[in-house]
Automatic annotation (TrEMBL):
EC number(s) reported in the record: 2.1.1.-
Entries under InterPro entries matching the protein: MeTrfase_RsmB-F_NOP2_cat (IPR049560), MeTrfase_RsmB-F_NOP2_dom (IPR001678), RCMT (IPR023267), SAM-dependent_MTases_sf (IPR029063)
Name of the protein this chain belongs to: RsmB/NOP family class I SAM-dependent RNA methyltransferase
Record domain SAM-dependent MTase RsmB/NOP-type: where: 104-389
Family assignment from sequence similarity: Belongs to the class I-like SAM-binding methyltransferase superfamily. RsmB/NOP family.
Active site, per annotation: 331
Keyword Transferase: yes
GO term, biological process aspect, one: methylation
Species of provenance: Sphingomonas aurea
Matches recorded under Pfam families: Methyltr_RsmB-F (PF01189)
């Protein structure tokens, strides 16, 4: 493909990604994969170059752009090499017209920037939200220490590695053997907020595909009972094969019926030593990985997530034994989902108290700790440890 044809491909893809963001369609990564599946003439260098252009444009445009071309013009304004590809050649985009409309440059939609400010995130800290994320691994301590070429240790976590970006992880022998899992350093850090010991009874209420479940199992030395729940069948179904690869045998999965979760968990009432609630959230802390997610969030969607978070907390609390810990995590920097949610929990659950976890990154924020990309170099998180009354 010529450079101009690559720009044209990026424009077409951005049109699809913007439509999908407006209409709740497929994620950008899925659309990029589908696009190239039907364009076999594009080689790996072409695909990489187009992907780079697409993601650079997504990072530049704070709001959903009116068109893919309007988004690409933001890059053309910064980079004469991109501007030169608007050359009107056979497979390239038409030349740039004087005064042509650009997408709005920014960190995020204005309402979200305002909410981040109200959540005490400074304007200086905001650009890091859409920077590029590094590629981190968690070493599975249940297996022999892996050899991973080019990896650097992550000193803040007990067993973390950073890989050169672009490494194809699923082809690494250590990954195939279950000796490492992909997990952002921040995610590894917030998981440490739940104190666990071998032999305990632990619940991971929103386990998804088990990123944090497997880390808990390793810290429990694969001894005890670990119940991993989720309402999403697809995600939860990926957990047990991962556990098997990781040599984890203490995990039981339980698919929950939304609205009827408590019925499926009566057997655990008042008996969990520890409870992890890694709640569904807006993901404002993970825009480094999914920058287009900020185009998709709406005030209505956020309000629904806040409701679900309160609901999962109300399901979790009665399962914890007296004096046991409930750790609440969101990968969001919005107080509405973080410290505000915990304030409401404490007001509604007399006798519960918050205890600030001592973590290797982040700073106290309300009743918990917050990690942010600018200060901590991790994804953004809020985490709180809540102790059940004795
Ligand atoms: C942030 S993700 C969990 C990520 C996972 N803990 C990890 O480390 O990979 C939140 C999860 O909560 C699940 N969820 C949503 N509503 C739920 C509910 N009512 N009960 C349990 N899980 C729920 C979602 O399906 C999603 O998988």
């Amino acid at each position: 493909m010529t450079p101009a044809a690559r720009t044209q491909a990026a424009i077409e893809l951005l049109d699809m990604i913007a439509d999908a963001a407006r209409e709740g369609g497929a994620a950008a990564d899925t659309l990029v994969a589908r696009y190239f599946a039907t364009r076999r003439y594009a080689g790996s260098k072409d695909r990489r170059a187009v992907r780079e252009l697409v993601y650079a444009a997504i990072r530049s445009a704070g709001e959903v752009p009116p068109s893919g071309r309007a988004a690409l013009l933001l890059l053309a304004d910064e980079d004469p090499a991109v501007a030169a590809t608007f050359d009107g050649s056979a497979h390239g985009p038409a030349p740039i017209a004087p005064g042509e409309k650009r997408a709005g440059r920014g960190i995020a939609p204005a309402w979200l920037v305002e909410m981040l400010r109200l959540s005490s995130l400074s304007d200086e800290a905001m650009p890091a939200l859409i920077s590029r994320a590094p590629l981190d691994l968690r070493i599975n301590t249940l297996k022999d220490a892996p050899e991973v070429e080019g990896a650097e240790p992550l000193p803040r976590v007990p067993a973390g590695l950073r890989l050169p970006s672009g490494t194809v992880v699923d082809q690494l022998p250590a990954f195939r053997d279950g000796a490492v899992e992909v997990q952002d350093e921040g995610s590894q850090i917030v998981g440490l907020a739940l104190p666990v010991e071998p032999g305990q009874r632990i619940v991971d209420l929103c386990a998804g595909a088990g990123g944090k479940t497997l880390a808990l199992a390793a810290r429990m030395a694969n001894e005890g009972a670990l119940l991993a729940c989720d309402t999403d069948r697809g995600r939860l179904s990926r957990l047990l094969p991962r556990a098997e690869r990781a040599g984890v045998s203490i995990v039981e999965t339980r698919l929950l019926d939304p609205g009827r979760e408590a019925e499926a968990l009566v057997g655990w009432r008042g008996s969990a030593d520890g409870m992890l609630v890694d709640a569904p959230c807006s993901g404002t802390g993970t825009w480094r990985r999914n920058p287009e997610a900020r185009w998709r969030l709406t005030p209505k969607r956020l309000a629904r997530l806040v409701e679900t978070q309160a609901h999962v907390l109300s399901i979790a609390a009665p399962l914890v034994r007296p004096g046991g810990s409930l750790v609440y995590i969101v990968c969001s920097l919005l107080d509405e989902e973080g410290t505000g949610q915990v304030d409401r929990f404490l007001a509604a659950h007399p006798g519960w108290r918050a205890e600030t976890p001592d973590l290797p990154a982040g700073r106290p924020h309300g009743h918990g700790v917050r990690l942010d990309p600018a200060t901590d170099g991790t994804d953004g998180f809020f985490v709180a440890r809540l102790i059940a009354p004795c």
